[in-house]
Amino acid sequence: MKIEVRVAPLNPWHEVADYEQAQTTLHGMAGAAAVFVGTMRELNEGDAVSAMTLEHYPGMTEKHLEKICAAAAQRWSLLDTLIIHRVGELRPADPIVLVAAWSAHRKDAFEACRYIMEDLKSNAPFWKKEQLPSGHRWVEKNTAGY
Amino acid sequence: MTVAVKFFASLKEQLGCDGASVEIGEMATAADVWLQASGGKAMPGNVLVAINMEYSDQNATVHDGDEVAFFPPVTGG
Questions:
Q1: Number of neighbours of residue B26 by Cβ within 10 angstroms
Q2: Which of A47, A48, A116, B1 is the most buried (most CB within 10 A)?
Q3: Class of domain A2-133
């Protein structure tokens, strides 16, 4: 299990490939990898968004993400999970979040990946502030996932 | 007793500070801590409360040395 909150840019596809290669316990055992990538859009609620600042609660955020992964591991048969989330300054098309779940079979991988992502969106302490032509705007709530 | 208070995101901007160290009486609740740290402002209805980095609520009792955080609904991912 790996959880990382970082300022540095994120290439989710390289991260998944590198993680899989490094985790030898996945080799020959993982029949399924489910991956979710969240990316910054240039439009929100009808307004052009030129940049975004992501804030988090250092310590609590990581702790909460660990709890989500532990809960998923209790509920599904998982081999491993990976979460990487950006904070700081982001631009449109920048990846914001990567969630990956590995399992022997697709059902557990798909469902766990979805569960982790939905809990992250609902409960992990991150906040987005958008840069609009008219100034800054805090995003007040996330869209429903289900 | 002393508790460490933290504010995040829009709440931090509205209050003009990211936190404070608050001296408060025994058996104080998170709501009492809010009142003291915010200078008596009413707590917005959607504010979330965490004590020692675990979700809690405004009626929870705080203890000496606790870290009490107040923040708006989360919007990550």
A1: 9
A2: A116
A3: alpha beta
- For the segment A56-112, what is each residue's pLDDT rounded down to a tens digit? 999 999 999 999 999 999 999 999 999 999 999 999 999 999 999 999 999 999 999
pTM: predicted TM-score of the whole model, two decimal places: 0.96
**What is the spatial distance between Cα B56 and Cα B60, in angstroms, rounded to a whole number?**
7
Hey, where are the domains in chain A? 2-133
* Residue A5 contacts B, CB cutoff 8 Å: no
Identify all chain B residues contacting A54, using CB atoms and an 8 Å cutoff. Answer: 76
In this complex, is the C-beta atom of A110 within 8 Å of any C-beta atom belonging to chain B?
A: no
At B19-73, the pLDDT tens digits run 999 999 999 999 999 999 999 999 999 999 999 999 999 999 999 999 999 999 9
The closest of B6, B60, B35 to A60, measured between CA atoms, is: B6
Which residues span the domain enclosing B57? 2-71
